[in-house]
Structures are given as C-alpha cells and as structure tokens.
C-alpha cells in the first residue's frame, strides 16, 4: 500500500482541522493508500513539539526549510496566516512537493502572478481548501446546475456572515491586520462565497464593491488601541458572464448569526437554495411542476463517491466536508493526477477578490 508522507505548516485552528481529516480518512473511506503524519511546524517551536506529541507527527520542525530538507515528504499542507502562503507555495513548488493550501491562496495580483508563472505548478498535484463544495447538498446542487435544471440563470444572492467582529473590545488578531492577513473579511469569508457562486453559476464579468470597517482601532494584547486596516464587511453587486446579476456579501458584523453561508440561484426554469446552517437538505424549485413550490431534498451524508461510515442517513457536520475535501486531494496524489479545486481555481477566486478590493478603493465597477 502506498504511503503519503504529509507535513503540516502552521498549527492553529486549521492545522488541527486538517490533522483531524488525516487521522479519520481511513475510517471514512478505507483507501488504497495510507497517510503518515511526517512533520509539523508552527509559529512557535513549542507548539510544533506539542502537536508532535499529541497527534503523532514523526517530526517537529522549526520552519518550512527544515521540513523541506527531510527526505520523505510528499505533501506540504499550508495552514499559515494568509501573508505566508505564497512563500510556502513557491518553496514547495521549487522542491516539487504536492500542495494542499488554505484559502486565500495568495495576497494580491503580484503574488498570484508569481505562483501561476512557476514552472512546476502543473507538475505536482495541488488543491485549494474550498471545503464547502464537499457537502452532499452542494454536490447535488452542482449536479443540477450541470444538468441545466434551472435553465438560463437570471439572478442570485450569496452571503457568508457571522458576528465575530461585532464587539469593539475584541482584541486585535492576525486576521485584523493587512500585514498578516493580506486583506480582511473579503479574503477570509469572501473567498468561500465567490468560490461557491462561480462553481455553481459561472464565471464573473464585473464587480462593484463597498467595504466597511466598523471600528478604527482595536486593543492589542496590552489593551493599547491600535489601528485596524482591514474590512469587517463587504457588499458587492456581481455580474456573471452569462448575464445574471446578483449580490455577494461577506460580513463579520452580523449580530445574531453563527457561521451562515447561503447561496440562492434563480433561473428561467427553476431555482435552488443552499443553506449551510441547514446542511442536510437542498431546496429546489421546478417552475414547470404543475404544483410548484420548493422541494426539500434530503442529502444528509449521501456522498456520490460512496462511503458507509457514518451511515448516509446520519446528519451532516461541518468538519465532515473537510475530510471529504482532503480525501479528494490525497486520492488524486495517490493516482498521480490533478485535483479539484486546484491552486489555479483558488487563484481565479483570488483574482476576483482583488478586483473587488480595487472596486471598493476606486468606487467604481471593475470589469474582468
């Protein structure tokens, strides 16, 4: 059985989430490959040591260079703050390692161009962590869109909203700083919104965006107020290449929400709704039905790839889609083929996000 040796770079919340995926994949899928947690590094070496002891990594490293010097690394899994993604990607490509990278892939057009120009980009398997594609309801929605069940797309609305920046006294974190995050909520949540929208409804023709920062300062770890240079919310009017027009919102000022991702698409022949707070169902409207109305289609854990653990009738959870996303990547690595969504797919979304920032800065519609 083939062994895939994985190194996780960065071990905060997402590093732990990915490690969960690696450890549970044999239970979910019984694959014809096995995963070895070969190495881990973190911003603080003691955190890497703790991860090694707690989760069974073979090696705790001080940095990515040390990891790349090891003889048995196949995959670089990038979970660092956004501003460090590009450097890690380029080093991994130099070493011809497979890459699994959190969104956003890059920070700005120049970084996007550098990655796209790398000669080894198409020589390895890469994947962007757009985990929301991997819920059963999203997979069924994609099937309906491929079958053109909605007909010509006319309008849509999409948002990902949460309340995490409502409190003015919440201390500064790396996501509140452009130096470490590259951008604000538009990079953090907007990446998911724009990936789901374009994956289902098609590419973008133009964007018009307004961003919002609720508080000019936040306290640092000592309580001293420091400037906030990232956006807390972003609101866009999007025109797709197929002529459909709609709205996209990414918002961390939404009091009363949790992590609400919602996609609604309207066409000449029907409509569909995906509500990730209600993840066990896809809502579909057939305008040609003699008794029209939204049909609530159960999806629970019915993955097209097929798995009997947990049983398909059991309710869906957020972290389950992360495991499925990761399995698609590892399966592609084991078969030496491209994975989807690739880094190129992630960089297309990055291009959209940067156009939205340009629109907000220049207060005009940006054509792509």
Question: Main attributes?
Answer:
six-stranded parallel sheet; alpha/beta; 368 residues; 33% helix; single chain; 17 strands
Write a concise synopsis of the structure shown:
The chain is α/β, with parallel strands linked by helices and 368 residues long.
Q: Which SSEs are present, and which pair or pack?
A:
Layout: E1 2-9, H1 13-29, E2 33-41, H2 45-55, E3 60-61, H3 64-68, E4 75-78, H4 85-94, E5 98-101, H5 109-116, E6 126-128, H6 136-146, E7 153-161, H7 178-181, H8 185-188, H9 190-201, E8 204-212, E9 217-219, E10 225-227, E11 233-240, E12 245-251, E13 260-267, E14 270-275, E15 281-286, E16 294-298, H10 318-335, H11 343-362, E17 366-367
Parallel strand pairs: 1-2, 1-4, 2-3, 4-5, 5-6, 7-12
Antiparallel strand pairs: 7-13, 8-11, 8-17, 9-10, 11-12, 13-14, 14-15, 15-16
Helix pairs in contact: 1-10, 9-11
Question: Can you characterise this structure?
Answer:
- The chain is of the alpha/beta class and 368 residues long.
- It contains eleven helices and 17 strands.
- The strands form three sheets. The protein has a nine-stranded mixed beta sheet with strand order 16-15-14-13-7-12-11-8-17.
- α1 packs across α10 (318-335) and α9 packs across α11.
- The longest helix is centred in the last third of the chain and has 20 residues, at 343-362.
- The protein starts with a strand and ends with a strand.
- The model has no long low-confidence stretch (mean pLDDT 95).
């Amino acid at each position: 059985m083939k062994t895939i040796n994985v190194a996780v770079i960065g071990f905060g919340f997402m590093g732990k989430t990915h490690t969960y995926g690696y450890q549970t994949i044999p239970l979910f899928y019984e694959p014809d490959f096995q995963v070895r947690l070969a190495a881990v590094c973190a911003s603080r070496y003691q955190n890497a040591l703790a991860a090694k002891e707690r989760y069974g990594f073979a090696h705790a490293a001080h940095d990515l260079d040390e990891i790349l010097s090891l003889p048995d690394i196949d995959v670089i899994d990038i979970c660092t703050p956004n501003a460090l993604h590009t450097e890690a990607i380029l080093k991994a490509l130099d070493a011809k390692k497979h890459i699994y990278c959190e969104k956003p892939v890059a920070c700005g057009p120049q970084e996007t161009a550098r990655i796209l120009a790398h000669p080894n980009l198409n020589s390895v398997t890469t994947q962007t962590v757009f985990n929301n594609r991997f819920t059963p309801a999203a997979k069924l929605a994609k099937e309906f869109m491929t079958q053109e069940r909605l007909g010509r797309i006319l309008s849509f609305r999409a948002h990902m909203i949460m309340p995490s920046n409502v409190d003015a006294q919440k201390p500064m974190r790396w996501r509140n700083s452009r130096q470490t995050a590259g951008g604000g909520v538009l990079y953090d949540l907007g990446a998911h919104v724009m990936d789901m929208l374009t994956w289902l409804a098609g590419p973008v023709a133009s964007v018009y965006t307004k961003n919002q920062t609720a508080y000019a300062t936040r306290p640092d770890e000592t309580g001293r107020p420091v400037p906030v240079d990232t956006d807390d919310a972003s609101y866009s009017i999007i025109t797709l290449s197929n002529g459909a027009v709609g709205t996209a919102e990414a918002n961390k000022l939404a009091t009363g929400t949790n992590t609400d991702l919602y996609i609604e698409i309207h066409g000449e022949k029907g409509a569909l709704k995906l509500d990730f707070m209600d993840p066990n169902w896809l809502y579909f409207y057939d305008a040609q039905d003699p008794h029209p109305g939204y049909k609530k289609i159960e999806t629970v854990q019915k993955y097209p790839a097929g798995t009997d653990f947990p049983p398909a009738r059991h309710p869906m959870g957020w972290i389950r889609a992360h495991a499925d996303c990761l399995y698609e990547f590892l399966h592609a690595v084991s078969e030496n083929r491209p994975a989807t969504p690739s880094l190129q797919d992630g960089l297309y979304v990055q291009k959209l996000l940067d156009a939205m920032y340009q629109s907000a800065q220049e207060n005009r519609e940006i054509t792509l």
